[in-house]
Amino acid sequence: MSRSVSKGPFVDPRITKKIAGKKPENTPPVKLWARYSVISPEMVGFKFLVHNGKDFPEVLVTEEMVGHRFGEFSLTRKFIKHGGKMQKDQEAKAKESEIASAQAAKASADSAKK
Q1: Is the pTM for the entire model greater than 0.70?
Q2: How many CB atoms lie within 10 A of CB 30?
Q3: Burial 33-51 (b: 16+ CB within 10 A, else e)
Q4: How many CA atoms lie within 13 A of 11 on its CB side?
Q5: How far apart are CA 111 and CA 104, in angstroms?
Q6: First to last CA, the chain
Q7: Beta strand 47-50 with 58-60: parallel, antiparallel or unpaired?
Q8: How many CB atoms lie within 10 A of CB 59?
Q9: Where do the domains of the chain lie?
Q10: Span 68-96, pLDDT tens digits
Q11: What's the topology of domain 13-73?
């Protein structure tokens, strides 16, 4: 369930205390465990290290993130590709074709310089 409208969004007071009166450019990333805290407009531009259960991925807060929670931007589960051997073969072919096209572009750029 969502929080009552009369109460307003929850912002952890420890986070607001850490960024109060500071500029985003001069402040080192703020480490936090409060994934449930809502991102407020005062936090735009700051970097946060949000705990995901194992480590602290860096999250740079932008205007589009206001109103969302920190936990949405620090994933707790690691996606492992599906497909096995067939998937690996397809990825290898795609990588080879990408390398070949890059080499062809480089060769054409070199010939254009001469």
Answers
A1: no
A2: 17
A3: ebbebbbeeebeebebbbb
A4: 16
A5: 11
A6: 67
A7: antiparallel
A8: 20
A9: 13-73, 80-114
A10: 999 999 999 988 777 778 888 888 999 99
A11: 30s Ribosomal Protein S19; Chain A (3.30.860)
